[in-house]
Input
Amino acid sequence: MNDGTHDMAIHSQDRIVAPRQPSRQTPLSMAGLLKPLRRGVWRYLSDRDILIAAFVTVVVFVGTLGLVYVAHVINVWGLARRSPIAGGHRRALLIFGRRLVDDLPEADFTERLARGRENVLAGAADRVLLLGGTSGGSVSEAEAGRRWLVAAGWPVDVPMTLEQLSIDSLENLRHARELLRPSDEGRLPAVWLVTSRYHLARCLYLARRLGFDASPIAAEPRLALSGRYVVRMLMEAGYLMWIDIGMRWAALTGNRRMAARIS
Output
């Protein structure tokens, strides 16, 4: 989860953060086996602090007979149900990427892009950040999103910045913070977070932990509880429970190293 230095290149009217290039290629025989472990929470499972947080979460889950998980399910579902689809006043707008399919945005990502564009055209954003690094294809999620938005029609007076270093939501927001903060001690601008309804609770939690004045915008017109969507929200509730209990444990025990991971 450590922040890394990065270079920025200017291309046309878009500010693009170039993705890091790997120094070595993983052998093809291992690539398929390791791919699921390179993204999301699974890539942190070798970290001692993360494993401690997982252990404490299991203890709390068992000790509360699962009620702590139920509380997080209610939180994820409630925010997914009530989040608006339109921003009220002009802010920076952050659009979260998602894994590409054949280097193109899939259905969830397309909905996020379309909702972001709709809010930009309505005057709810003074700048836009597209978030997402390379997730297995030849282009980053942010670049694929930029191409989609340009093809759909993008207003020339709204700058678009591409953050292409991250591969999970926490890194998305950390790098966005670097790009939006005018100086090390400067105040962050208020932001809209545009993502799928199932993803909003975790993104909002992380953004506020990182110091953002953040508000959600839902990609989908309404919450539709299909089987796939229910599974996604149950998974998100588990991730959020893990993160939240880990942060509470860090505060209780005075573990500054653990707390600094999301601050």
In short: DSSP finds nine helices and seven strands in the chain. The radius of gyration is 18 Å. Strands lie at 8-11, 14-17, 91-96, 125-131, 160-163, 191-195, 214-218. Residues 1-13, 16-38 have pLDDT under 50 and may be disordered.
